Amino acid sequence: MAEELLKIEHLTKKFEDNMILDDVSLTVHRGEVIVVVGPSGCGKSTMLRCINALEPTQGGTIEIEGQQISQSSKNLTQLRQKIGMVFQSYELFPHLTVLNNILLAPAKVQKRDKEEVKKEALELLERVGLKDKADSFPRQLSGGQKQRVAIVRALCMHPEILLFDEVTAALDPEMVREVLDVMLQLAEQGKTMIIVTHEMQFARAIADRVIFLEGGKIVEDSDPETFFDHPKTERAKQFLNVFTFEHVKHKTIKKD
Amino acid sequence: MPDLGLEVLLKGKNMIRLIGGLGVALRISLISVLVSIPLGILLGALMNWKNPITKAILRVYLEFIRIMPQMVLLFLVYFGSTRAFGWELSGETASIIVFILWGTAEMSDLVRGALSSIPKHQYESSEALGLSKVQTYWYIIIPQTLRRLIPLSINLITRMIKTTSLILMIGVVEVLKVAQQIIEANRMSSPNAAFGIYLAVFLLYFLACWPISLLAKYLEKRWK
């Protein structure tokens, strides 16, 4: 098995008295694609936010490449560079062009040579089909385009692991595909990813492991075939049933 | 054509005197703006702090200044405070004090609003990219705040200029007071002068404020 990249141990997260994450442990190996599913409010997004220390935690540890990351880490900004995050609402910087959105962090945080990063950024944009948008502003792009730019922005930092927080949830159906295709490409290239999503078909296609989270606990952790075809727990079965529509044809139309 | 009393404008130095009056109004506004914008930015940033005590104090200050009509503030400072504390204030100084108090309050509220209108996710996506707190403010938050703020604060400047028309009440000879003096002086020879003179005052205010609000509109469009 490949080396351990991210190790979460006994992670606990509370909002006041509400238990959001309850003793979550998860190890992610280099090159693995983990998909996290579960009902809304189960703590999926919070888990991602804890991983790059956007949320304070109340117990447990998170280690990336053997180094502990938390909001009080001294080298937090360095550790965060190892973790790329893509948000549901894209969160491009509206006052910067697409290219400058991508260049900002590599230039200001990593102090890399601007020309070299620019070359890389343009290549990546070309790969996601947006090279001609380099000088556009985010407001001129569609949702799917913005999300692809956000992915390129995260990639350009050369992160060790990418976190995707329901990245297609705010998109129109016809734009979902273009974003998912980019993520499938990344999986093929062997990128390590943790993906929170409600797209079950996609989850099945991309995942090496599926994590089913409920009530802040990991209820199932298995390969996608097992999870989708033979879920072990009753709760996971119920959850998966939500995504199938067998009985709708039986409805009757009343006429006066 | 009715007699609009326009000829009074051309008599003697009347036009120059009116422009001089506008100069006084503009000078008072300019000084007040120059002081209250930086002060307002400072207080507005403090209002976004989590400290409940600073927040409460600033809130009281803001509401107090806003609810009170500017005229009452002017009277309070010019007639009230000079009596009570025995200090000497010229009308112009009193006006500047009141305009700074008022402008700072308004400006701080604009800054507070602009800052809190930046979504929390903007901070997070910047920090997730590894930017430090300082870099996040410098590259992400402040540029966006300024874009929202500049058109609003330019409008505040025009409001200040217009409100200087009140300070004749505490004896400052600004453009409206000059106008009254001219009308008074010509009451026998040109009883209709009020129309022409006030028309000139109207045009002077317009010429002072219009370019400023055009600029605000332009910036608003550009940075939308």
General description of the model:
The complex is a heterodimer of chains A (256) and B (224). In chain A, helix 5 (143-155) packs parallel to helix 6. Chain A has helices at residues 44-51, 76-81, 98-108, 114-127, 143-155, 173-188, 200-206, 224-229, 234-241, and strands spanning 4-15, 18-29, 33-37, 59-64, 67-68, 83-86, 161-165, 192-196, 209-214, 217-222. The longest helix of chain A is centred in the C-terminal third of the chain and has 16 residues, at 173-188. In chain A, the strands form two sheets. Chain A has a six-stranded mixed sheet with strand order 6-7-8-3-9-10, sandwiched between helices. In chain A, strands 2-1-4-5 form a four-stranded antiparallel sheet, with helices on one face. Chain A contains nine helices and ten strands. The model of chain A has no long low-confidence stretch (mean pLDDT 91). Chain A has a domain at 4-92 and 160-243: P-loop containing nucleotide triphosphate hydrolases (Rossmann fold). In chain A, strand 4 (59-64) and strand 5 (67-68) form a beta hairpin. The termini of chain A are far apart. With 256 residues, chain A is α/β, with parallel strands linked by helices. Chain A is globular and about 55 Å long. Chain A is 35% helix and 25% strand. The longest helix of chain B has 34 residues, at 14-47. Chain B has helices at 7-10, 14-47, 52-67, 70-85, 91-116, 120-128, 133-163, 175-185, 193-222. Chain B has nine helices and no strands. In chain B, helix 3 (52-67) crosses helix 5 (91-116), helix 6 (120-128) packs antiparallel against helix 7 and helix 7 runs antiparallel to helix 9. Chain B has one domain (7-222): MetI-like (MetI-like fold), CATH 1.10.3720.10. Helices cover 79% and strands 0% of the residues of chain B. By secondary structure, chain B is mainly alpha-helical. Chain B is elongated. The chains are: A alpha/beta (256), B mainly alpha (224). At the A-B interface, helix 2, strand 6, helix 3 and helix 5 of A face helix 6 and helix 7 of B. Chain B: Keywords: Cell membrane, Membrane, Transmembrane, Transmembrane helix, Transport. Chain B: Its main location: membrane.
